[in-house]
């Protein structure tokens, strides 16, 4: 069955349902960055959920001189600072095809490139 996530609201609803199905108790949700991102505070950790229309296809080309290749993902610096200040544990990226990728904030920062 092909899943199609058409907008931000549908993406956030999908993630919330996944949390609930996996027995995460949602303590609070907070939209940030002009409601482009959603913070989900749960009893099993805090997540920054981001709906992305596509991967960062030029990632490998832009950061080639720093050893990068392939595709990547981007998060604005202000949102990352907010994650650190508010104890966000994980970043979740959700795409229109329904795929969700999760990475810890620490791992994301340790493997980040900055222009």
Describe this structure as you would to a colleague.
This protein is α+β, with helices and mostly antiparallel strands and 115 residues long. The protein has a single domain (8-110), classed as Trna Endonuclease, Chain: A, domain 1 (3-Layer(aba) Sandwich), CATH 3.40.1350. The protein has helices at residues 8-21, 59-62, 77-85, 105-110; strands at residues 26-32, 37-42, 45-51, 90-94, 100-104. The chain has a 5-stranded mixed β-sheet with strand order 1-2-3-4-5. The longest helix is centred in the first third of the chain and has 14 residues, at 8-21.
Please write the CATH class name. Answer: Alpha Beta
The helix content is 25-40%
- Count every helix, treating DSSP H or I runs of 4 or more residues as helices: 4
Poorly predicted regions are 55-64, 66-71
> How many domain units?
1
The strand order across the widest sheet is 1-2-3-4-5
Could you say what the CATH architecture is? 3-Layer(aba) Sandwich
Element-by-element helix/strand order = HEEEHHEEH
Radius of gyration: 14 Å
**CATH topology group:** Trna Endonuclease, Chain: A, domain 1
Q: If you average the pLDDT, what whole number results?
A: 76
Distance between the termini: 39 Å
**How large is the share of residues in beta strands?**
25-35%
Number of strands: 5
The structural class is: alpha+beta
C-alpha geometry: globular
Main beta sheet strand tally, sense and closure: 5 strands, mixed
Please specify the SSE layout and strand pairing.
Layout: H1 8-21, E1 26-32, E2 37-42, E3 45-51, H2 59-62, H3 77-85, E4 90-94, E5 100-104, H4 105-110
Parallel strand pairs: 3-4
Antiparallel strand pairs: 1-2, 2-3, 4-5
């Amino acid at each position: 069955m092909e899943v199609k996530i058409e907008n931000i609201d549908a993406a956030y609803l999908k993630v919330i349902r996944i949390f609930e199905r996996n027995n995460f108790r949602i303590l609070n949700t907070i939209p940030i960055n002009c409601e482009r991102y959603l913070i989900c505070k749960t009893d099993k950790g805090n997540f920054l959920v981001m709906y992305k229309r596509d991967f960062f296809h030029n990632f490998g080309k832009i950061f080639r001189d720093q050893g990068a290749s392939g595709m990547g993902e981007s998060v604005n610096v202000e949102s990352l600072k907010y994650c650190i200040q508010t104890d966000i544990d994980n970043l979740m990226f959700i795409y229109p095809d329904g795929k969700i990728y999760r990475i810890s904030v620490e791992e994301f920062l340790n493997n980040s490139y900055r222009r």
